[in-house]
Amino acid sequence: MQVVTVTADAETFTCNAYLVLGERTVLVDAGAMDGVVDVIREHTDTLDAVVLTHQHGDHVEQLDAVLDEFDAELAAYAPHPRRDTPLSDGDTVRIGDEEFEAVHTPGHADDHLAFVSDSTVFSGDVVVHDDGAFDDGSFGRTDMPGQSREELIESIRDLLDRMPDSVEHMYAGHGDEFHGDGPESQPERQDSSGDVRDVIETALERAEKREPKYPE
Questions:
Q1: Cα angle 60-63-69, degrees, rounded to a multiple of 5
Q2: Which pTM was predicted?
Q3: pLDDT band at 160, cuts 50/70/90?
Q4: Of 14, 80, 119, 140, whose CB count within 10 A is highest?
Q5: What is the mean pLDDT of the chain?
């Protein structure tokens, strides 16, 4: 399964939008970078689906442009005018060559989903490897209206409970991708030690301190 960060060269604020090539070509989040359609076209002429982790602006600003360009299905937790497939906690969705479980992970956003397979997690903003606040395990902000640190903590715990120990690859909504130790790790793409579970457990420990993520 090949994963391409199609927003890697963005000069404005965006999420990481991931094009997953394989049996079912899927875009995980659309991002907010002008020209994202052109980058997708560099890698594929067809797109089977767009799957959303959540609908914050930095994740969906280019969604209409992508859907207008490709005859792709839209799958999301929350209603959207162009949604074809509602996703609920525990649903299964094929991304690339693998089956992923949708895990409802609110706190940063009420409609947030993470997607977990035997090898990979697309974690959106619930947990990230690094984001300027922390390295080697950080968590989505919860200081804006409608967000909840307590819900986020429970979401991270649930994600850990439902994530197989075999997961080696973590693609988060912000910061660097992470490839943990193991026979299929890709250290040339991200210098790393430990594994994905270590990163998420560190994020949980930091979130559980209940201190402001961005001190004034």
A1: 165
A2: 0.94
A3: very high
A4: 140
A5: 94
